Amino acid sequence: MTMRLGRRGLMGLGVAAGAVGLAGTPPRAATTTRKIALEEHFSTPELVKRGLVARPTNSETLFADIERRLADFDELRLAAMDAAGIDLSVLSVTTPGIQGMTDAKEAVSLAQASNDLLADVVRKRPKRYAGFAALPLQDPAAAAGELQRCVKELGFKGALINGQTEGHYLDDDRFLPFWERAHDLGVPVYLHPGLLPDKPAMFAGRPELDGPVWAWTADTGAHALRLIFGGACKRFPRLTIILGHMGETLPYLLWRLDSRYQLQVGQTLAQDERPSTLFRRNFAITTSGVFDPAPLAAAIATIGEDNILFSVDYPYEDSNAAAAFIENAPLSEASRAKICSGNARRLLHL
Ligand code: ZN
Q1: What is the DSSP letter of 108?
Q2: Could you give the percent of the chain with pLDDT greater than 90?
Q3: Rounded to whole angstroms, what are the CA distances from 33 to 8, 295, 339, 349?
Q4: From ligand 1's centre to the CA of 266, what distance in Å?
């Protein structure tokens, strides 16, 4: 497949729909509302060297642009933020990052090194950048300790986990020390797509379905449901888990999840036992990578505007398209302000 790319790389693939104003009104500028963004990635030379940066495109040109932007904390990133009205980006190691490693000891030291590098970046520009910790879940006790170090000593706002670790999802009992620490520290955990642990038959022969087109959504949505059905939400009632990509389709499915789960267990469940209740209480979602007002409206209707936060998914998405979308979505100014920054301030204790 060949792809014609403009000199602006990813910008050429930006979604135009968000740039359309309401009928009869000119489109609002991308910078109108001040924003905080939470799914914004970076790489380090060591992560690149070890092949821990996923390649979501067949295009060499596009990937070169992504790699350049992942490694940059200065002109490119700040210019993209400024053009989109983003005051603060919460940065995280790109996928699969530490979750892609198999040696626990190396994972512990590379997580620490990545977090230290991020802490330096944040220290340089504390008004523009904040951090989510990368965690070596290959060693759950070490991951709990590293989360505490990142929050208490480095001032990070939570953690971002890139999918499964060595084939284990986060509902596994081995991760209880990590969840207990996150709950005690009162910081959110961003559940981000990672690499699938195997190649399921449903994707066989259809490489289009692998990666972000569908497999990552299916895997991350299932990961979230494992936490709901596995009891983590009940055990840790104050825990907030963040899902990107407009909630990985789950807000759209809450009614059906309740309906079919009650059929499966063979009884009507009390409201607070239903998957939809746990999702609304324990999850927040971001608009990263879905710049479409229709799913945004569905998410507001099902989980409420207080649980929705603006994000881009830089540099895999175009910051300008993300901003134009939220500026021109049919929202009240109060709702837009909450989604753009108010909810993030509350959730991240800014
Ligand atoms: Zn992402």
Answers
A1: H
A2: 92
A3: 24, 21, 10, 20
A4: 38
- What's the mean per-residue pLDDT of the chain? 94
Q: Distance from the CA of 272 to the center of ligand 1, in angstroms?
A: 31
Model confidence at 13, pLDDT cuts 50, 70, 90, reads low
Tell me the three state secondary structure of residue 95. coil
How far away, in angstroms, is 269 Cα from ligand 1 center? 35
CA of 26 to the centre of ligand 1 (A): 31
In sequence order, what are the beta bridge partners of 283? 241
Burial string for 150-162 (b: 16+ CB within 10 Å, else e) reads: bbeebebbbbbbb
CATH at 74: 3.20.20.140
What is the structure's pLDDT at 311?
A: 98
Cβ atoms of residues 167 and 227 within 8 Å:
no
String of DSSP letters for 277-339: HHHHHHEEEE-TT---HHHHHHHHHHH-GGGEE----TTTS-HHHHHHHHHHSS--HHHHHII
Interatomic CA distance for residues 67 and 100, integer angstroms: 18
Name the domain count of the chain.
Answer: 1
What letters, b where the CB count within 10 A reaches 16 and e where it falls short, cover 178-209? bbebbbebebbbbbbbbbbeeeeeebeeeeee
Structural domain of residue 203, as residue ranges?
A: 4-347
* pLDDT tens per residue, range 15-53: 444 445 566 788 999 999 999 999 999 999 999 999 999
Q: How far is ligand 1, taken at its centre, from the CA of residue 313, in Å? A: 5
Span from the CA of 267 to the centroid of ligand 1 (angstroms): 38
* Mean pLDDT on 142-152: 98
Is 60 within 8 Å of 9 (Cβ atoms)? no
Q: Which residues are catalytic?
A: 313
The predicted-structure confidence for 162-215, as pLDDT tens digits, reads as follows 999 999 999 999 999 999 999 999 999 999 999 999 999 999 999 999 899 999
Return the structure tokens found at 15.
Answer: 């979604």
β-strands 129-131, 308-309 pairing? unpaired
